[in-house]
Specification:
This protein has 322 residues and is an alpha+beta fold. It is built from 11 helices and 4 strands, in the order αααβαααααββααβα.
């Protein structure tokens, strides 16, 4: 008995081909059964359609500064494309709860995904199905892709486009919450600054009136003028100096007020849409040919391994009996 027979089956490439040929009938039956089964399964799988939107984030440059300031020194204007940081922020917004809940509500995804409300974990199932069918990714060109898989091609495209449109709603809502608070603070400071200027104008007016009246009193007009300015000139000059400072502060506060008001009321877009989704004509899943080929090959490989193991066991048992 040679070494090969003593140790069972030790296959080289030629031996393996010979062994496959000997087992061709069994393998043919397994292959045919696997092919038929995979064809039936692929037919039963619900076809899914894929719709995508491609968009770029905008820069995070201040809209107010970019539009109100002629010498704005920011790296990019308000009309520029964003960079990786802005793309990552855009991804976070796309994954946000407000967008997810709005899409679930608008398209009644609980019913659309055929999830029973009285099942054990309906919300968990809903969120997991949503996450499985709706995906976001950062492309190699720093754009963001929204991809939606659905059994209805029209709904797939509609969801992708609605998610894209909701980006600006969520962005602006988050920014306005902060901007409105800032506007209230700046408006209060601006009002106080205006009141101080008006108060100083009134004070200057009174001092001026007093000086004018003193000059008009009986006596030498020149002496009256010198006396009037000696008594009120220092107060007048100090008030004028303070008035210039307050006017400068009021002008600065007015600029800040206009800037804060623009930030609180603007609805600038936060993305550039390169390609909106359209209802696909061909299904993206399943690929029946791929399913049949992979399933058949996997079944044949598994059957071959099982046959080799069985024959090895039989060979070793036969050796021991001898």
């Amino acid at each position: 008995m040679d070494k090969k027979e003593q140790n069972g089956y030790n296959f080289n490439s030629v031996d393996l081909l010979i062994y496959i040929w000997k087992k061709r009938k069994v393998l043919s039956i397994v292959g045919m059964a696997a092919a038929i089964t995979s064809i039936v399964v692929s037919i039963l799988i619900t076809p899914m359609f894929s719709a995508s939107v491609i968009m770029f984030p905008t820069t995070d440059a201040s809209v107010a500064k970019g539009l109100l300031t002629s010498n704005y020194s920011g790296r990019q204007g308000v009309y520029g494309f964003g960079e990786e940081e802005q793309a990552e922020q855009l991804l976070q917004v796309l994954h946000s709860e407000p967008i997810r809940n709005r899409i679930i509500e608008k398209y009644d995804l609980m019913e659309h995904y055929e999830i029973e409300a009285d099942s054990k974990y309906p919300i968990t199932q809903l969120y997991e199905t949503y996450k499985s069918n709706i995906k976001f990714r950062l492309t190699e060109f720093m754009s963001v892709e929204v991809n939606v898989m659905d059994s209805d091609p029209v709904i797939a495209a509609a969801i992708a486009n609605d998610i894209t449109d909701l980006v600006d709603t969520v962005y602006n809502s988050m920014k306005k919450t902060r901007a409105i608070t800032a506007l209230g603070l700046v408006e209060s400071e601006f009002t106080e600054s205006q009141d101080r200027v008006l108060f100083m104008l009134d004070s200057l007016g009174r001092i001026g009136t007093e000086i004018s009246n003193d000059i008009k009193t009986a006596g030498d007009p020149m002496d009256n003028m010198v006396k009037a300015f000696a008594e009120n000139g220092v107060s007048y000059m100090a008030m004028m100096h303070q008035m210039r400072n307050e006017v400068g502060m009021a002008i600065n506060m007015r600029y800040r007020y206009n800037e804060a008001r623009l930030e609180a009321t603007q609805n600038m877009p936060h993305k550039f849409v390169v390609e909106r989704a359209v209802a696909p004509e061909k299904k993206a899943y399943p690929n029946k040919s791929l399913i049949v080929i992979v399933s058949t090959f996997a079944s044949l490989l598994f059957a071959l391994i099982v046959l080799i193991i069985i024959d090895n066991i039989k060979a070793r048992v036969a050796i021991k009996e001898d």
